[in-house]
Specification:
This protein is an alpha+beta fold. 18% of the residues are buried.
């Protein structure tokens, strides 16, 4: 009889150890998934911030002769880049509408409707300020991450 009791105790200990191992494995898997999701969110926010800044910087740098301005479009700031093509001046308006960075191209003197622009990427806000040496751009992503850059003008202002 004593052998059967020892055998059942060993079996219960083995099952208990297996259950503890299974719970630990589940805990580690859930914790790993949370860490991964948090890392993915931070990477996406960082990507959105950098991409928006690079997009705006390149648009300004390719604008001929520093022909850019900051104007208001329906209560928000818009970056306006001018370019002459075949004798006609066109303006690219870059602005945020409904948490989307948008761009609309119109002939000079026209003002685009905010809903008519091409959506570029998610972005909560855009702020641009002309300075003596160039333009300061600040963006806030939809994940509330802020970034600011300064682009110096080629000809000075």
């Amino acid at each position: 009889m004593f052998g059967k009791k020892k055998h059942s105790t060993n079996m219960m200990f083995t099952v208990l150890l297996l259950c503890i191992f299974a719970l630990a494995a589940i805990f580690v898997a859930v914790l790993g998934a949370k860490v991964y999701a948090n890392s993915a969110e931070k990477l996406q926010a960082n990507f959105d911030t950098r991409t928006s800044i690079v997009y705006l910087s390149e648009k300004i740098r390719t604008c001929p002769g520093d022909d850019y301005d900051v104007r208001e479009l329906n209560g928000t700031k818009a970056l306006v880049l001018s370019q002459e093509i075949n004798g006609t001046t066109y303006e690219s308006w870059i602005y945020v509408h409904n948490e989307e960075l948008c761009e609309a191209v119109v002939t000079a003197g026209d003002t685009p409707g905010t809903a008519g622009g091409q959506q570029i990427m998610p972005l909560a806000s855009l702020d641009a300020e002309l300075t003596d040496g160039g333009i300061r751009i600040s963006v806030v992503t939809t994940e509330n991450q802020e970034s600011t850059t300064f682009i110096s003008g080629r000809t000075g202002r």
